[in-house]
């Protein structure tokens, strides 16, 4: 089965665990997902079966939109409801101050990913190193990086909980953003809830199958009925890009009756980025 869709991962299950459940549900063997969600988080998870797993790297996944609730005073090594060490008492704040603090995080900001994250360090995920107590490797591997916050919307404040909606770039960590917001408000904090609403234009719609020709952000070249070019592409042969009048270093979708390919042009040669992807 070749299929791509947006699933809705429940709370307190790993993304891999939920993918295994979907594989059993749809009776498929080859499957994958794009954009891992932490076990405590829920929401939109882009899933593909069969040949459509090749499409992940071509999807536009920014901005990513999340709903989150920040628990002021929460002491957690993972900055969420897992690995909680305790709760510090915090004083109620003026709602205006909370709203003002949120707006200070718009734009680019520097941060260090949490110890408990899926960030790869020397072939291992950061949370594996954290659980094993290898703090030295974590410290060396978790480098400061940049995320961009496009929009930060205040939703509610009921002390000690601050709810907000964030539109961010790829590679952003909402747990880190939450901790920085808490710091700005004069305390520590961690997330008590996190839901991913969408990745780019992709959002949950009852696991409706998506048309790859509609969600891939490339110009389409309709070659249905062109048997000469079809034979060349079926066999993955090189040809002069002038034949299709395509520009250098630009990605295109070439569509036939039963499949499509993603190509580009480099040094006057056609490059096959993904070839003979079935059309369902």
UniProtKB/TrEMBL annotation:
Record InterPro entries: PsdUridine_synth_cat_dom_sf, PsdUridine_synth_N, tRNA_psdUridine_synth_TruB
GO biological process entries: mRNA pseudouridine synthesis; tRNA pseudouridine synthesis
Catalytic reaction(s) noted: uridine(55) in tRNA = pseudouridine(55) in tRNA
Active site: 38 (nucleophile)
Keywords for this protein: Isomerase, tRNA processing
Task performed by this protein: Responsible for synthesis of pseudouridine from uracil-55 in the psi GC loop of transfer RNAs.
PANTHER family tied to this protein: PSEUDOURIDYLATE SYNTHASE TRUB1 (PTHR13767:SF2), TRNA-PSEUDOURIDINE SYNTHASE (PTHR13767)
Protein name: tRNA pseudouridine synthase B
Organism expressing this protein natively: Helicobacter winghamensis
């Amino acid at each position: 089965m070749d299929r791509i869709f947006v699933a809705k991962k429940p709370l307190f299950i790993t993304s891999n665990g939920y993918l295994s459940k979907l594989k059993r549900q749809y009776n498929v063997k080859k499957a994958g997902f794009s954009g891992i969600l932490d076990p405590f988080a829920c929401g939109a998870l882009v899933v593909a079966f069969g040949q459509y797993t090749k499409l992940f790297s071509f999807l536009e996944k920014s901005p990513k939109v999340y709903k989150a609730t920040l628990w002021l005073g929460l002491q957690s090594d993972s900055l969420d409801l897992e690995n909680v060490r305790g709760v510090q008492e915090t004083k109620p704040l003026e709602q205006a101050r909370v709203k003002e603090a949120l707006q200070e995080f718009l734009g680019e900001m520097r941060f260090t990913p949490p110890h408990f994250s899926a960030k790869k360090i020397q072939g291992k995920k950061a949370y594996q190193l954290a659980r094993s107590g290898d703090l030295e490797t974590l410290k060396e591997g978790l480098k400061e990086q940049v995320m961009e916050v496009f929009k930060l919307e205040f939703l509610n404040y009921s002390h000690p909980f601050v709810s907000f909606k964030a539109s961010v770039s790829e590679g952003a960590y909402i747990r880190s953003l939450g901790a920085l917001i808490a710091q700005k408000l004069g305390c520590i904090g961690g997330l008590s809830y996190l839901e991913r609403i969408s990745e780019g234009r992709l959002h949950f719609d009852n696991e409706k199958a998506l048309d790859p020709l509609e969600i891939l952000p490339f110009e389409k070249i309709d070659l249905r009925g062109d048997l000469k070019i079809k034979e060349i592409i079926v066999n993955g042969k090189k040809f002069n890009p002038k034949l299709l009048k395509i520009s250098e270093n630009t990605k295109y979708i070439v569509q036939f009756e039963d499949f499509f390919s993603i190509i580009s042009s480099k040094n006057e040669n056609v490059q096959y980025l993904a070839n003979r992807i079935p059309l369902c």
